Amino acid sequence: MAFLPPGSRGAAAAVMLAAIAVSAQPAAPVLRIASPTQDAYVSGPVRLVARVDPPALEKTIVHVVFFAGGKQVCAITRAPFECEWDAGDRIVEHQIRARAVLKDGTRLVGNVRTRGLQHVEVTDVDVVQVTAVVTDGGGRFARGLKATDFKIYEDDRQQQITHFASENIPLELVAAIDISWSMTDALPGVKDAAKRFLSGLQPADQVTVLGFNENIFTLARRSTDNDVRERAVDRMAAWGGTALYDVVLKAVDVLGRQTGRRSIVLFTDGDDQSSHVSLQAAIARTEGSDATIYAIGQGRAVESPDLQKLLRRLATVSGGRSFFTEDQASLDASFNEILEDLRSQYLLAFVPAHSERDDSWHRIRVEVSGGHHVRARQGYRLMKRR
User: Fold this and answer.
1) Which residues of the chain fall below pLDDT 70?
2) What residue segments make up the domains of the chain, in order of their start?
3) Whole-number CA gyration radius for the chain
4) For the chain, where are the alpha helices, taking DSSP H only?
């Protein structure tokens, strides 16, 4: 044990008391923008979300004002401090600012800057986007490929690749979760599975959560905030019929046509009973979109060959995959495969040889040199404007 000279004991005690007093002081309040996050890619409708730390201070906030590019977007006077903002069709850089005023006059400011896509070609004609997953002979993802390694064919005629990206590609994802009566027994496990999958996404990934039975519900609007998604999943309860084909159309519409990767993850038993549209209509809309569908078969789909066949068909035509298991370890392995898929995708685009919007089907084939295997959408339709 160390001993201090009598004269220095008082000074040491004073230093210790001062340190304790400093550590006991509450942390300065901070306003942060929870959505979008720093360096996120945004376009179309975006949910602006502000949070204050410590959370107890929310009760003392008079108002929060959001600004985008220096222009006021909205002002909110009570929690939750959230509002909708249209970021536009193109993925460009935005400066987002939030300003909060507290009852005691304190002002808090939070800022984030979103990222823009560089070298994206803008054209007045339709461009067909293709996301491709490339593996080698051993099934390992082939990364680091260049545009010159790829060839893309439309109806067996090689096309010029007008855009190519292999990293920092923004992801727009819709997670659609079946909450019909037929999912009653499976739903607790599905909720846990959905939350595990969503927590594995990248922080900048934009996600919309839909619940569907005979109706379709937006449980969590487009956001990068995983806490919002998990709370939305926890609120789900099973009731009603199943409108699987309707939710496919809805998900495609939600994703829109912004530049980047678009994917749909379906958690369902596939037992459609209540859709207003047919399976063929759902497939045709999928063929007119470049969204990749991943089907997580649950409930009856785990045992039913017919339901598995249906979900495989929806996934395969889009270049996606389907999985059928309720075992947690197997599910987690499936989720890891999907997440690796999403992180390993290449994005290619070409101007189609046929620009007529006549709903006709055109085959797509993507080849990569070196004996690689490519998984991509099988074709496309330039859908009539309706």
Assistant:
1) 1-26, 41, 43, 89-91, 116-126, 257-259, 355, 383-386
2) 30-114, 128-167+347-381, 171-344
3) 25
4) 6-24, 187-199, 226-234, 244-255, 279-287, 305-317, 328-344
Check residue 386 and give its pLDDT.
53
Q: Are 238 and 254 in contact (CB under 8 A)?
A: no
Tell me: domain 171-344, CATH 3.40.50.410, correct? yes
Across the chain, what does the average pLDDT equal?
Answer: 85
Please tell me the total number of residues recorded for the chain in this structure.
Answer: 386
30-114 topology per CATH: Immunoglobulin-like (2.60.40)
Per-residue confidence (pLDDT) for residue 2, from 0 to 100:
46
Tokens of 376: 């991509």
Q: Would the CATH topology of 30-114 be identical to that of 171-344?
A: no
Q: What is the b/e burial string over 27-49, where b = at least 16 CB atoms within 10 angstroms of the residue's CB?
A: eebebbbbbbbeebbbbbebbbb
Instruction: State the CB neighbour count (10 A cutoff) for residue 208.
Output: 23
* Predicted model pTM: 0.67
Residue 229 CB partners (closer than 8 Å, separation 6+): 175, 195, 198, 207, 209, 220, 223
Tokens 């609007």, residue?
Answer: 221
Task: Report the distance separating Cα 262 and Cα 143, nearest Å.
Answer: 20
- From the centroid of its chain, how far is CA 61? 31
Q: What type of residue sits at position 73?
A: V
- Are the beta carbons of 116 and 91 closer than 8 angstroms? yes
Rounded CA separation 88/256 (Å):
12
Q: Is the dihedral of CA 196, 197, 200, 202 positive or negative?
A: negative
pLDDT digits (tens, 9 = 90+) for 329-345: 888 888 988 998 888 89
Q: Confirm if 255 and 292 have CB atoms less than 8 A apart.
A: no
